[in-house]
Amino acid sequence: MTNPPLYHVYMLRCNDMSLYTGIAINLDKRVEEHNSSAKGAKYTRARRPVILVYSETCEDKSAALKREAAIKKMRKSQKESLI
Predict the structure, then answer these.
(1) Is the distance from CB of 77 to CB of 19 less than 8 angstroms?
(2) CA neighbor of 7 nearest in space, from 21, 19, 23
(3) Taking the domain 7-82, which CATH number applies?
(4) Residue 6 DSSP label
(5) Cα separation, 12 vs 1, whole angstroms
(6) What is the pTM for the complete model shown?
(7) End-to-end alpha-carbon separation of the chain, Å?
(8) Which residues are within 8 A (CB) of 39 and not within 5 positions of it... i.e. 6 or more apart?
(9) Which residue from 5, 10, 12, 79 puts its CA 20 to 30 A from 29's CA?
(10) What is the pLDDT of residues 5-57, one digit of tens each?
């Protein structure tokens, strides 16, 4: 039996100093997509380049989605403290 993939909740700092939060299984690939692919989020495509500034691992997709939602509800100052 194979282990299920781990999910990463991450934050990117965009070129305009804003923060973007998302989830991914393959974090390196996802950051690369944000920087150079049409698969990057519409928000980050207009704010390239982006830099990975924070990530944490979650056991499953449900936990990652809940954590992503919690981070997105934080004020920017709280997100900066987390970083």
Answers:
(1) no
(2) 23
(3) 3.40.1440.10
(4) P
(5) 34
(6) 0.93
(7) 36
(8) 33
(9) 79
(10) 899 999 999 999 999 999 999 999 999 999 998 888 899 999 999 999 999 99
